[in-house]
Amino acid sequence: MTSKNAASAAPSEKKIVSHPIPPVWNAQSRVLLLGTMPSPKSREAGFFYMHPQNRFWSILPSVFGETLSLPNNAPDSFAAINERRDFLLRHNIALWDVLASCNINGAADSTIKNAIPNNFSPIFENSQIHHVFCTGKTAFSLWQKHCAALYEKRYNLVVHCLPSTSPANASWNITLLLEAYRAISTVF
Q1: Measuring CA to CA, which residue among 23, 31, 51 is closest to residue 107?
Q2: Is residue 2's pLDDT more than 80?
Q3: Alpha carbon 114 to chain centroid distance?
Q4: Which of 22, 166, 185, 187 has the most CB atoms in a 10 Å sphere around its CB?
Q5: Phi then psi for 12, rounded to 5 degrees?
Q6: DSSP one-letter string for 162-173
């Protein structure tokens, strides 16, 4: 086997990823949505859920009877990011991820190792958040493992697990996702 073939046959290695995107929130935020770690496409774009096939930005605005005008892969990604940030803040929604860093293969949550959680105290201390929604089972599991004991009782939080909007979660179609995500609008 040549070295080129050996390299292509080697299993992909888990890469250490540090979270590059700051949280979206303000003092009026009442709900915090948490993913696990931004995907490579989201890290490249500089904002959350920016993979063109992720359904997050179709589902969440629909919960509030809105649609976004720019697609995730808009040529002017700055405008798409601003549109999403404005939407979140207008609806008092904070958005971030459970993890500050981890070892991960691509966007596969199932490969996460050496997870280090984000510090949520500044957000909870300076907002009106009492409901946290994790956008998938892995985010929820990581919250339970690394964050629940630190924050839930201290900040009087209620934590919910929503289904992932990733295209890998194909068993949840748009209708089912929308029904599940409507829970966000009921806490206001």
Answers
A1: 51
A2: no
A3: 18
A4: 166
A5: -65, 140
A6: EPP-STT-TTS-
63-92 pLDDT tens trace: 999 999 999 989 999 999 999 999 999 999
Task: Using pLDDT thresholds of 50, 70 and 90, give the confidence band for residue 15.
Answer: confident
Q: Is 126 a catalytic residue?
A: no
- 132, 56 in Cβ contact below 8 A? no
Please tell me the pTM assigned to this model. 0.91
Catalytic residue among 26, 54, 126, 169: 54
Tokens representing 158 are: 């209620």
Nearest to 33, CA basis, from 59, 71, 15, 14: 59
Given a cut of 80, is residue 4 above it in pLDDT? no
At which residue do the structure tokens 């900040």 appear?
155
Structural domains in the chain plus CATH codes: 12-187 (3.40.470.10)
